[in-house]
Amino acid sequence: MKKRLRILGNIVIILAITIVSILNYRELRSKLIQSNENYLANITSFFDRALSHNIEKSGSNDDFATIDENEESSQTEITDQRSTENSNVTQELLEQTIGLTFETFNVLTSDLRITVMDETGKVLADSNFPGDKLNNHRARPEVWGVISGEESHSNVRFSNTESVERLYFSARSTHDNMIVRAAVLMDFLSNAASTITLSGFIIGVATLVLFNLVLHLLFKKQDKHQADLEKVLIKLESGDLSARMEEDRNTFANYRKFAENFNQTVTNFEHDFNEMQAGRAWLEEMVNSLMEPLVVVNNDLQVVFANKYAKTLFNRDIDPIENPYPFVLLTHEDKLDDLCQQVLNNGKTVRKEFKLQVTGRYNAFQVMLSPIDVDHVVVLFNDISAEYEARELRSSFVANVTHELKTPLTSIRGFVETLRNRNNTAPEQVNNFLEIIDIEAARLERLINDILRLSDIERLNNDSEMEDFDLVELLDECLVQLDDQASEKQINLIPSDDPTFLPVKANRDRIKQVLLNLLENAIKYHRKKGNIWIDLKRKGRFVTIKVKDDGYGFDEQSAKRVFERFYRVDKSRSRMLGGTGLGLSIVKHIALLYDGEASVKSIPDKGSTFKVMLKI
Q: What is the Cα–Cα distance from 54 to 100, expressed in whole angstroms?
């Protein structure tokens, strides 16, 4: 601030003095030129009167008499005399008149020059040079102005003849249309400019010295105050929170108030910092006691904190608080970096399952990423290796068994057709057996198909055969397909009026499977006479499918497990209705396949609401 003020002040002072000097010089120049123009006009007028007098004296052979400068002769008398003058003016007469004019005016102006020219600009006589040695002056601005018709014309210019700058004043003479030009040197302006420059320089130097002296006195205490502040700040930066500013009672009141406030602020900060350090130590102990890996990642995707278990499990002894390192070096999984960036961008918690390399093996983790603030994400690794292995074994087992069962199932269905054509068995008995076998075979087929679907979904990381379609149109298709089933139980299927068009991009068969499973589940486990409401909404990149009924409902414990494989709220009713126990599990896994989730809220005897979110 001080440096800028000093520089700005000096510049302003210099500019002000320079501008004032220039304006003074311009004003003085203008006044001097005006004064000298009037003076030269008097000279040319005197020359004209003197020439008339000399012509008159020459014509009457009288002795030449000196014409006094203050001679008072009326214009009328001069005009009358001029009318009687001889039109031929001799060179000698011109030189006499120039000499007379010089005797009269040269006392005041030693650098005076008078030139007489005819109307073409030819020099007839000159006070400083022989007339025949000078070239035609027609092109001179002051001469050309008179030739062009002006009575008089003045001009300041550099004389090539004399190599000096002069003020020229030309006027038309009444004798033979001659032009009389008088000129004086302009060196008085150079002297004036030097005087003004010198005066401005002296005043400027004095003003600058005075200004800087005043600044020095004003900022002396401020410099001391600032030096004290910088010294304290250096100590604080080095970690010495006991540093304080000197509270000088003899300094300015605002500086003293600042020192008091600063010291109080540092005291409060020291107190808060000590409490924070104690809390941090306690929190670090608590986090280190967790038996699950936990790390904190910053917005540069670097690990800035890792608890003890994370360092042990991932075999990292480096302290990330002092030496942060890339998150990918800990996990060896680029997709986790992408998830961290996603959480930093949208500020929402994300859960994903990953198989990550740990000390000598691969473990399965459910990774939860939650934002701490705009710059940090906490990552918690929940080890689900055992569950993951069991899931993979079960999925593999189901896939293998169902493929093995599909062949005998086809044989059973064929055998049923054969029994229907035999004649040695009572038709009623044969048909009864056939119906039972057919029902069981169909149920087994549905079970196999559901297991195959579920196994297929679990094996996928993302869906294939994606296409663009209208979800509202697909819902209408499902409602038509289930209309007879709903009508048998006198259930109204009520779709929402809004939206009328909802474009999505996904595997159409899988989304249809979600709609059918939810609607069939609602119809099967609904009492006779009731309503089922279907609502479709888009929020951001997610589409929500909501199916609500006013059926039996179920308790909170069942709500937590309803999406598990083979789980049935009412097992007897489920078997009677032909359910496999896999429909809602398929819905859940399709939702997970599309980065979404499935949830339910239910109240016994009042109904249930199933909600599925899909990123489609």
A: 10
Could you give the CA distance from residue 380 to residue 376 in angstroms, rounded to a whole number?
Answer: 13
Q: Which residue from 316, 310, 303, 304 is spatially nearest to 288, judged by alpha carbons?
A: 310
Question: 135 phi and psi, to 5 degrees?
Answer: -80, 175
- Could you tell me the CA-to-CA distances from 237 to 223, 255, 275, 560, 615 in Å, in that order? 21, 22, 19, 54, 50
Instruction: Output the six-digit token pair for 415.
Output: 């055998």
| pTM for the full predicted model | 0.37
Q: How far apart are CA 166 and CA 180, in angstroms?
A: 16
Dmax over CA atoms of the chain, in Å, equals 184
pLDDT above 60 (res 480): yes
- The SS3 of residue 124 is strand
Q: Is residue 237 part of a domain?
A: no
Predicted confidence (pLDDT) per residue in 323-375, tens digit = 899 999 888 888 999 999 999 999 899 999 888 888 777 888 999 999 988 88
Domain that holds residue 50: 2-185
What tens digit of pLDDT does each residue of 307-323 get?
A: 888 888 888 888 888 88
Q: Distances in Å between the alpha carbon of 101 and those of 43, 47, 122, 600?
A: 7, 6, 21, 123
CATH code (residue 153): 3.30.450.20
Q: For residue 202, is it within any domain?
A: no
Whether 411 and 374 map to the same domain: the answer is: no
Domain count, the chain: 4
Decide if 513 contacts 453 (C-beta within 8 A). Answer: yes
